[in-house]
Design a protein that fits this description.
The chain has about 375 residues and is α+β, with helices and mostly antiparallel strands. It has nine helices and seven strands, in the order ααααααββββαβαββα. It has a four-stranded antiparallel sheet with strand order 1-2-3-4. Strands 5-7-6 form a three-stranded antiparallel sheet, with helices on one face.
């Protein structure tokens, strides 16, 4: 039955009122019935879900099932309310209002779903953060949480727009163009952001590790300790107490030298040169003596000295030792080098310096050149 149409030219008001009463009264009674039914279902669903939630909380120790019950409660209660409203709108033969309410229903359901996904990711975030010492996941995971929540709500809005008859194809195309423009404008930022996420997954180093630095200022240390791993850049403190900020994108493009990732024990190589006239075996013994008295040098594996190569003015040896603390490699190398110098001086082992032997094939006199005569006095 269609609602009565009012003709302003007619004067039979009683006829129109009778038709309006015949149209509205049955629908008012039926609408009231739908409201009462929805209220009864809402109260029953709330009571049932409360009992189910209490039992699940008592049976399990995790919070995921609690979040699931909360999601079901919100979705079910919202669905009961909007289901009744859509039925009432259809009862009153208002299709546009029914479509609008259905769209609002979809958007309203997107929020509790987004909240459930966010809470589940938060639980995962707590477990990941507790297992790691880096602050990168402390920043990246909350950002990922917000992005996922936004995407869930955005998908709900797009479905709702389709429900009311809005063509979302131009919107998707426009969003693609805007996304492309933003990605081109913020290419470096996005590159560093992606590199930061990859650092979470690969973990080539952590806060506290000692790594090699590529862009260290001149006359400063070329290595440092990682003090912070950010979403855009990594901060490294070098031995001069300078903080070097390196973009994550640059870190992912380079070979990463981590001195402490495999443990504190590393092998140290110290180059030592002696003159060609020096006794190699004697020099080898004195070098091993110098290394044996240094704290931090491991006895097993034993230190060894090898003959590396023949240089232009020297015989190049190399001391290879294992040390207990990778962070002391520079200090240990300095102490061993100083001790080797002292022992070489004590035992007459020459430390070479560049030498050149000059051979004259013939003198100027032999070639007929005479020195110029001094001018005579007038």
């Amino acid at each position: 039955m269609q609602p009565p149409e009012f003709d302003w030219t007619r004067t039979d008001w009683s006829t129109w009122l009778d038709a309006a009463r015949a149209f509205a009264l049955p629908r008012l009674v039926e609408s009231l019935g739908w409201i009462l039914l929805a209220a009864a279902l809402w109260l029953f669903a709330r009571w049932l879900l409360s009992r189910a939630e209490n039992r699940l909380v008592a049976l399990t120790e995790t919070h995921v099932d609690d979040l699931l019950v909360i999601l079901l409660r919100r979705v079910l209660l919202l669905s009961i309310v909007f289901w009744a409203l859509v039925r009432i709108a259809g009862l009153w033969e208002l299709p546009r209002l029914a479509d609008f309410l259905a769209a609002v229903w979809i958007v309203a359901l997107a929020f509790p779903i987004a909240g459930f996904v966010a809470d589940a990711l938060a639980i995962l975030e707590e477990r990941v953060v507790d297992r790691t010492a880096t602050t990168l996941d402390d920043t990246a995971l909350p950002l990922l949480n917000k992005i996922v929540r936004f995407l869930v709500v955005a998908v709900g809005i797009l479905i709702a727009l389709g429900q009311v008859g809005v063509d979302i194809t131009p919107l998707l195309a426009g969003a693609g163009v805007v996304g492309l423009a933003v990605s081109l404008a913020a290419k470096d930022t996005l590159s560093n952001l992606i590199a930061g996420i990859l650092l979470i997954l690969d973990r080539p180093f952590q806060v506290g590790d000692r790594i090699e630095v590529w862009n260290a200022p001149e006359e400063t240390g070329t290595w440092g300790d990682v003090v912070e791993i950010g979403l855009r850049a990594t901060k490294i403190r070098n031995p001069d107490n300078l903080i070097i900020v390196i973009p994550n994108n640059e870190i992912m493009r380079r070979d990463i030298v981590n001195y402490t990732a495999s443990g504190q024990h590393i092998r140290l190589r110290i180059p030592i040169a002696i003159a060609y006239d020096a006794d190699v075996d004697e020099a080898r013994r004195r070098i091993l003596e110098a290394a044996a008295g240094v704290q931090g040098v491991k006895e097993s594996p034993e230190p060894v000295v090898i003959l590396r190569r023949f240089g232009e003015s020297s015989v190049d040896l190399q001391l290879r030792i294992w040390i207990e603390d990778a962070r002391m490699r520079r200090a240990i190398a300095d102490e061993i080098t100083e001790r080797v110098k002292e022992r070489f001086d004590e035992h007459g082992i020459e430390i070479p310096y560049p030498k050149r032997d000059l051979y004259l094939r013939e003198t100027p006199g032999e070639r007929g050149f005479l020195e110029p005569e001094e001018p005579s006095e007038a």
